[in-house]
Amino acid sequence: MIGFAVSEAVVRFPALIPSTELSRRLGISESSALRLKRRVQLFAHDQMDSIKSLMHQELKSKFRGTTLPPEDKNVDLRKDRRFRAKLGSIAQCDTLALFSASQRANGGRKRYKHSGQTASLYLSERLGGRQIGTMTHILSWRGGPILLDSIPDQKAQTIGPLLDKYIPHDVPFFTDEGYRFYARMNKNHRMVSHSSRSPEKRYRWGRDRWCKNGVHSQTAEGNGRAIKQAFAVYNWIDPKYSQLYLSEYAFLKGIKYYGLEKIAERSRKLGEKARMGSSARGERTENGKIRHQGTGAYRNPEEREEDRGRKGRKGERERGQKGQGQRGQGRREQGTCTLVPSADSLPEIAATR
Description:
The chain is 45% helix and 9% strand. The protein has 11 helices and 7 strands. A hairpin with a 5-residue loop joins strand 6 and strand 7.
């Protein structure tokens, strides 16, 4: 059933399969279908580390040594031969509000505790003020995979660590003006102003409001539109489970771009790297070889037997030295009538006391 759910989700992507449809097609109860859906989502969430690693490596290899011209020179990247072919592969970011509260449900959206785009995620105070929507952070490039993160707000301390983790150092990166804080961290970060005004008085907005000199975030915005259409099949999702739903969508799109074989190979390499890292923190034997903590795993049986022999000889030497020290301590303390009792006499001493 899990294999059917995963294969059907891959075939139908970008459309998603709700648990009610799984219940109907597999002939199982709705609670069983929901648990099956959770298992698929947890599996997808576990594979996101591999997709993130593949995206990071691809961005780093594509834009190694690439430096965009300064913003003050107003160079149109679409006409520059050096950057024209790479514009489609430049990563873009944006935020999206899923399942926001309606005006009728929240009394005209009168907010006292929340403000900005985050305000639409909460009910009004007279209805309890609880969160019913999900704020999503989107990272992708044209025709490429996607990374989705459920975030509580749009502050720099929330989004900054995500960009530091996903975007390689000084790789070209396009956003809107909501990411001004990232400009000092990446010299190739460019922004487009959606509130650009027209120089002519008869127009309100400028022509470069959505794209200026080839810099835009329309790919991320288009992905946001596709996510809203795909998630309409759920009617509503609980914000505390939002990351599982977002990881499922990102995993399915990663399969379309990289393929299952490449993701599985990267997952295997990451697992080996994690094991090597844990072995580096393990116990080091006398001959310089490393034994894993807790597992006692060795590369081959010969290393295990050799280490056991070394430990046995070392234990014998330590016990011999300890015995000599105790006898010497007893002889030294006999002059003051203070003898070190042996292990056999401890019960008798305890009974006398």
